[in-house]
Amino acid sequence: MKPEFRAMDRSILSGNPGTDKTALLLPPFAAWSPTEVLAHFRQRAVDNYFPLNPGKAKHVASAASILENQFTLNNETHRLGNGFDWLHNPSADLEWLILLHKFYYGRDLALAYEYSGDEGYADKWVALISAWIKQVPDGFVNSQVTGRRLQQWLLTYHYFVPGRHCQAISAEFLLAFLQSIQSQALFLSRNLTPEGNHRTIELSAIFTVAIIFPELSASAELLAFAQRELLANLRQDFLADGVQKELSTDYHHTVLKNFLRVRELADLNGVSLPEPFDAVIGKALEFSIYAHKPDGWLPAINDGDVNSYLSLLGKAERYYPSDALRYVLSQGKQGQPPTQHSRLFADSGYCILRSAWGERPYTDGRYLFFDCGDLGFGSHGHYDLLSFEMAAFGRSLVVDPGRYTYHEHDGDGVNWRHAFKGTAAHNTVKIDGQDQMAYQCHAPVGPQPHAAVIRFESNQGFDFVHGRALSPRYEVDHQRSIFFAENEYWIISDLLSGCASHRYQQFFHLPPPSPAPIQQLNNRQGQGICLPNLLIVQAPRAEVAMHIESGWFSPEYGVKHAAPVLSFSQEGDGIRWFQTVLYPYRDDAPDIQIDSLPVSQSQHLATPMQAMALSITLKTSDTVYRDCFFVSHLNKPAEYRFADIVCRAKLLFVRRNLLGEIVSLQADAAESLSIVGRTLLDSIDKPVMLNYRLNPTKPTLSAVWERAA
């Protein structure tokens, strides 16, 4: 397989494309002999580059296979012959060949050499690069591959040349290496990807070449170009809320890492960057602080792997110190927590609902990442509007399955790219068996679905987000609200409105199974399951069917593990609801009972199903709570009646103890409220938010009434 590539018109290069030193190097270096040039680069100070990590025995082990031309890339291994063809792909997946040309494996050779001093690793590095230079035109595959390769070549160069007397490095090789470096950098400057993470990688590579090799004839031109374009690209790459516009948590950090490299190199070399540069990076770091789960891992939203970028944040802290960053890096032992515990990033549509930062141990924190954003720029968006990932007590409990592959066709006949990218692979609702968008592997085509946050509210004891998704593929309006009750558990309410009859499937993707089996709850408790550290429960309804199906989870590219999927399904026309309680627990699951509460509303509005209420009873070894939750997705105000409550509000949560005393009460867009016949809020013109807790000195309903009045 030989992919299409863009070959560079070498006439656009400054000077001769060969190794003519007069075209390659500035004076006085151009007049030096090759031996003198090699001596210069060997003796030159290296304090203008990143600190180098020491080699370890593990790098020697990893490099052993490379010596034999055996490459394991994206968890797929191929052994290539001596003098192999760089343009031939032994894999059916183009990503394998792309990784071969990015040269990440060169780092193992360099670190093995640093650790052992064995010249065989240097000989192999020189042989691979020399063969690549002879066979491969500039721009093979695409520009971002060139950018990645330049970064790896410059990294490994520092292990073999500056301050070294490596016998494998000849003067002729060094000149050919420098010529190729300059040629590739010039190619990038004239063939930049228009936008996105690829452009950032390419500009970072150009900047690095220009900084590291001021002796090259094109370096001044390349540095001026990179400085000018980097700021414009930084502003283009990140949304106003600090989230990278491809809306992938992984690629957000890829871009952030490249801009941080630019910042560090600029600092090491006394190069100034414009002030707006730091402001944008600061916002990008804020998103990273919130996006990392309490256990330090990052959810793989859209394309990407399950990663932790805390080490990257540790490097960033040197240039962008903050109490919040130090707090997250130290797991609450240093610094100060962020001012908000939950956060909406409005431009991306990403929302994190989490428990207080002061949770101890830190990893016990409850965390939910809600994706209420569009697909994002480019091809990395999954069809996952209104999906989420949830973690608590140091474990990911409801997961995004990941990406697995960019390759569509496999020998088993399954389109795995679609299987992981489609709507059914996410924790949302699939309608009539259709994806939210017509499937395309590499880029969205045609009308796209749209998601938006309707309401977000977060303060002490009150966290709520309400989102909406519309797809051109069907006429259904999907609204999902998530309420975080008492910093303890989540209530997810899905309202699905359509004129015709539709089939609705709601999915919860679970991590690969633990030794403890999934337990199905009994009818008294509700319809749902008990997992280690998590209850997923709905009120029993005859029209809703529950199934446990087989699914997949991919923590990294090319790797997938079997994992269970819980689904609830129903069919019908008009308005349909799913209301789901997600209750995480540390040790012992509480005895839970979920029941639907009949809701009625004022006579002039004949849409009672746009509001629903739940009764949630929670029993532990030392407490019993009876929670009542109500939510309406109706825009017009109405008076609702359920249980012993009458209210005009869009959301209400009431917790009572075993004696019937109100422990806490939260309401959103409330105009009036009475409980057991006692008026707590008189009818008012302007809706308000209520957030009250029982006064321990007045453990009666009147305590709440006095504070609400």
UniProtKB/TrEMBL annotation:
GO molecular function annotations of the record: lyase activity
Keywords: Lyase, Periplasm, Signal
Identification of the protein by name: Alginate lyase family protein
Domain Heparinase II/III-like C-terminal: 338-564
All copies of domain Heparin-sulfate lyase N-terminal, residue ranges: 59-323
Gene source species: Methylomonas fluvii
Domain of life: Bacteria
Compartmental location: Periplasm
Pfam families: Hepar_II_III_C, Hepar_II_III_N
Location, primary (coarse class): periplasm
